[in-house]
Amino acid sequence: MNLVIVESPAKAKTINKYLGSNFKVLASFGHVRDLPSKDGSVRPAEDFAMDWEVDSDSKKRMKDIADAAKGVEMLYLATDPDREGEAISWHVQEILKNTKGLAGTPVKRVVFNEITKSAVLEAIANPRDVDQELVDAYLARRALDYLVGFTLSPVLWRKLPGARSAGRVQSVALRLICERELDIEAFRAREYWSVDVDLTTPSGEPFTAALTELDGRKLDKFDLADEAAAKAAVAAIEARDFSVATVESKPARRNPAPPFTTSTLQQEASRKLGFSASRTMRIAQKLYEGMEVDGETVGLITYMRTDGVQLAGEAIAGARTLIARDYGDRYVPPQPRIYKTKAKNAQEAHEAIRPTDLHRLPAQVTRQLSEEQLKLYDLIWKRTVASQMESAQFERTVADIKAPDGNVMLRARGSVLTFPGFLALYQEGLDDSEDSDADRRLPALASGDAVNRHAVKPEQHFTEPPPRFTEASLVRRMEELGIGRPSTYASILDVLRDRSYVKMDRNRFVPEDKGRLVTAFLESFFRRYVEYDFTAQMEEKLDEISAGKIEWKSVLREFWGDFSNAIEGTAELRVTQVLEAINEILGPHIFPAPEGGGDPRACPSCSAGRLSLKLGKFGAFIGCSNYPECKFTRQLGTNGDGANGDANSTKVLGESDGDEISLRGGRFGQYLQRGEAKDGVKPSRVSIPKDLPADTIDLEKAVALLALPREVGMHPETGKPILAGVGRYGPYIHHEKKYVNLPTSDEVFTIGINRAVDMLAAERPGRQASSSVIKALGDHPADGKPVNVMKGRFGPYVTHNKVNATLPRDSDPEEFTLEAAIPLLEAKASQPKKGKARAAPKAKAAAPKKAKAKKPAAKKPAATKATKPAAKAK
Question: Of 267, 426, 506, 825, which one's alpha carbon is 20 to 30 angstroms from that of 442?
Answer without folding.
Answer: 426
